[in-house]
Amino acid sequence: MTTTNRAAEAISARGVRKSFGKHLVLDDASLAVADGTIFALLGPNGAGKTTMVRIASTLIRADAGEVRVGGHDVAADPDAVRALIGVTGQFSAVDNYLTGEENLRLMADLRHLGRRAGRARIAELLERFDLTDAARKPASAYSGGMRRRLDLAMTLVGDPAVIFLDEPTTGLDPRSRRTMWQIIRELVTDGVTIFLTTQYLEEADQLADRIAVLDHGRIVAEGTPAELKSRVPGGHVTLHFAEPRALRSAAGVLGGATPDADQLTLQVPGASVASLRRMLNSLGDSGIDVEHLSVHTPDLDDVFFAVTGHATADPAEQEALAP
Amino acid sequence: MTSLTRTLADSATMLRRNLKYQLRYPSLTLMLAGLPIVFLLLFVYVFGGQLGAGLGGHGAAGGHGTAHPDRGAYLDYVVPGILVMTVASVALGTAISVATDMTTGIIDRLRTMAIARAAVLTGHVLGSVLQTLVILVLVTGVSLAIGFRTSASPLQWLAAAGALALFAFALIWLSAALGLAARSVETASNTPMFLTLLPFLSSGFVPTASMPAGLRQFAAYQPFTPVIQTIRGLLAGGPVGAHAVAAIAWSAGIALVSYVWAVRLYNRRRAATPN
Question: What are the tens digits of pLDDT across the range B90-107?
């Protein structure tokens, strides 16, 4: 029995199981998150992501397995874990009847920051999250993006060492999503550890140092974004040509490409900027005219198909999701 | 920070949150005050003349303030009952507000924070006790306006207020526990309903002596009767001793059991939002 707290691991989960009634939500899930990194748990709706966050953040107990946060067992010593963490849930955790400022004050008071330190922290967070103008409006009047920012600001009041972000950008418009990403990136520069769940491969790719893919309660793949994407065959460029001769010359110049003589297209593997530049350079050097091109980047569906052999939304899962 | 000062500080923070709600949405407080006032007017002006005639000098010396001597006597008799009924009907609101609060995301956030265990509930309960005291002042004001008179000294008023606050504290903890035990806000608004019925099955509206045997025994031994008799004794100058002891014992007992139950339910509760 080892009880050493590996300081390098901010979060570790071993063999976590959880079921609600007959429905097994987490099935022997294990993962490790290094200190000061961003870890993304990627998976479709109903995969068990939120359940994992709820267990690690002391909201619910696992049926079996062990989860440690900052070296503390979440089941045996929940208060020690609570002192370290901040949680921003998928479902907004702000008090609708209070103003943005009052919500932050509530957090500052519960963190025992003291009047002066609390006031300074609140002003700083309102400023940082662009909420100063809306500070005195009730949270119920906030837009989706503002609520999410207030939610995260409330999480940060106590300077948590480990932050759980459960689908932080689900339901946000693209601009708010970018803002949120920027905020999350800035957080790790302060040295905190971030555990985020997402349905979007792009989001995990943009933010995470490591990604684990969760499917039906099991971790089916784990690695850096690059490692994960290398397992996905879906990234490719499709070149469209005006006439068959150009297609033939291009196929000759670009090795490993798949021509389609009927459609006059050529599918070239690899969709990175570097490979794209190389490809365009060789086409230019050979004087081949390309009518237009389309880039297909791998998405969650591709990753899923690659690591599980089935698509993200199978009928059985839809059924399990039905209330 | 010791655990006691932490508990006090966190409870005060949560109390401030609840008071902010009450000040921002005063209509709820006014609605809760409305019910006992309607019952007061109904019992005094509709039934009062007849019921007062049946008291047979049971109440304080009647005939002042109102044209009808029997109605005046009944007003003096029924006000302690109405005050205790006020406590019960305001307590009802706590079950609803606790159950509603538990469905919101903010509670999940609070449960992931290292704050004193009972602080969320204590905030609700103390907020409701203060709300009850405000509503009791309103109801007493209406009673005095329609002719209620008492010979009570300031000390007796204070003792009556203390007895009512203690009983409110007990019923509000009970209501908070019922609100936590309810699976939905709708259930939470129904389960504590018996609290508004109990004042009728006590000495609140008619003397228990006029009831049939089984009911009379129930009325004599249920907690509302000693509380009402204590208030009546303090305001109308009747005997208080044994009733006051029973009232304090009931209040302390209900508060303790409900507190333990409520805190257990709060800690064991599953997260509010779906997976």
Answer: 999 999 999 988 888 888
Integer Cα distance of B81 and B98 in angstroms = 26
Say if B108 is an interface residue toward chain A (CB within 8 Å).
Answer: yes
CATH topology of domain A9-230: Rossmann fold (3.40.50)
Q: CA of A154, closest CA in chain B: separation in Å?
A: 9
CB-based contact B111 A93, cutoff 8 Å: no
Q: Which of the residues B106, B108, B115 would you substitute to probe the A interface, choosing the one with the greatest number of A C-beta atoms within 10 Å?
A: B106
Considering only CB atoms, A57 lies closest to which of B21, B112, B115, namely B112
**In this complex, do B6 and A98 lie within 8 Å of one another by their Cβ atoms?**
no
For B29-43, write each residue's pLDDT tens digit: 898 899 999 999 999
| Cross-chain residue pair A83–B273, CB shorter than 8 Å | no
Q: Which domain holds residue B131?
A: 3-268
A158–B10 CB contact, under 8 Å? no
Give how many domains chain B has, as a whole number: 1
Whether chain A has a CB inside 8 Å of the CB on B134: the answer is no
DSSP state of B269: P
Residue A22: how many other CB atoms lie within 10 Å: 5
* Residue A13: band (very low, low, confident or very high) from pLDDT cuts 50, 70, 90: very high
E-only strand ranges, B69-217: none
* Cβ contact A144:A67 at 8 Å: no
- Residue A91 is nearest to which of B10, B114, B273, comparing CB atoms? B273
Using one digit for the tens of pLDDT, what is the confidence trace for A242-292?
A: 888 888 888 888 878 888 888 899 888 877 788 888 888 888 888 888 888
Backbone phi, psi, residue A15, to 5°? 55, 45
Q: Cα–Cα distance between A253 and A288 in angstroms, integer? A: 9
**What is the CATH architecture assignment of A236-296?**
2-Layer Sandwich (3.30)
Residues of chain A with CATH 3.30.70: 236-296
